[in-house]
Amino acid sequence: MRFQHFLTLLSGLVECMFFAGVTFGWASLVFVLKNEKYFQDLCPSPGNQSINATDSCSQQDEQFSLIFTVAGLVNNFVTLPCGYIFDHFGTAVTRFLSISIYTAATILIALSNEETKAVSFISCVRSSLFWFHFIWLSVMQLRHYMFIATLNPTLTRLSGGDPLTVSHYTNVFAVSQFCGILCAPWNGIIIDRFKGKYKDSTADLHSCVVSLAITATQCMLFSISATLSILPAFYATFILQVLNRSFLYGGNAAFLSIA
Questions:
Q1: 40: part of which helix (H) or strand (E)?
Q2: Is the pLDDT of residue 84 over 70?
Q3: How many Å apart are CA 1 and CA 241, to the nearest integer?
Q4: Segment holding 45, helix H or strand E
Q5: Does the structure show a pLDDT above 50 at 47?
Q6: Which residue spans traverse the membrane (predicted)?
Q7: Distance between CA 236 and CA 128 in Å, rounded?
């Protein structure tokens, strides 16, 4: 038991030696990042005079200070969820998660360089494409939520309060939800089918047009069918709802990955 305690202490010392340096050795890390020319494009370049990577630049220093501030806040904030995971799942799970997160971070750092131009979140929010897709998805998703929320009162009203009829249609609706797995691949097949018809740089976005149009048409037919005050019509409504839901979320994920 003492040997295990010694190994635990030794592993803790080794971890602190290698991993705590990111925070407490930040000054040395900044020197390395400046040599790698991170954020150097923010520094003014007077004429053709070259800039030493280690020279002071307020814009560059602000970015490094921001990174350290955010990292410090996150480091303190995750103490609570980390303690919860440690208490409920044990040391092995906690260490596995920490190793996975750290490995992912080092891979991202290794893949990044001073020429990497990542689109900022603010620029995405300001784009018209973002807002059109956001409204499009929100309206359709709200329509599905409203249908599910009002299904039981609607069935009760149309059946005259008959519990057997309400139970029957409720069971049909519940079973139909499992069919979404069968409908999910169709949207991807449509996107791949039309992707080969375009050869320009926007071919991937063009391939989503047909998918988005079909999804919008399905939602319109689903909404029309849901307004019919005929109980047998709800069989078609359930089919359209499942089909449209699969196209909606599948198409949304495909569009986000492409856009």
A1: none
A2: yes
A3: 61
A4: none
A5: no
A6: 6-33, 66-86, 92-111, 118-137, 172-191, 212-235
A7: 35
The Cα 36–Cα 166 span in angstroms is 67
pLDDT digits (tens, 9 = 90+) for 137-171: 888 888 888 888 888 888 888 888 888 988 899 88
User: What is the Cα gyration radius of the chain?
Assistant: 28
17-35 burial code (b ≥16 CB/10 A, e <16): eeeeeeeeebeeebeebbe
What tokens were used for 99?
């190793």
CA proximity to 241, closest of 159, 163, 146: 146
Sequence ranges of the domains in the chain:
2-43+55-111, 121-258
* Residue 200 Ramachandran class (φ > 0 left, ψ -120 to 50 alpha, else beta): beta
* CA 2/CA 103 separation, integer angstroms: 31
Signed CA dihedral, 79, 82, 87, 90: sign only: negative
Contact 215, 244 (CB under 8 A): yes
Q: Is 255:195 a contact under the CB 8 Å cutoff?
A: no
CA distance 150 to 226: 11
The pLDDT > 90 percentage for the chain reads 7
Global pTM reads 0.52
DSSP string, 113-153: -TT--PPPHHHHHHSHHHHHHHHHHHHHHHHHHHHHHHHHH
Which 8-state DSSP code applies to residue 161? Answer: T
Give CA–CA dist 105/111, Å, rounded.
10
3-state secondary structure of 216: helix
The total of other beta-carbon atoms located within 10 Å of residue 68's CB is: 16
The whole-number average pLDDT for the span 232-248 is 90
Distance from C-alpha of 221 to C-alpha of 237, rounded to nearest angstrom: 9
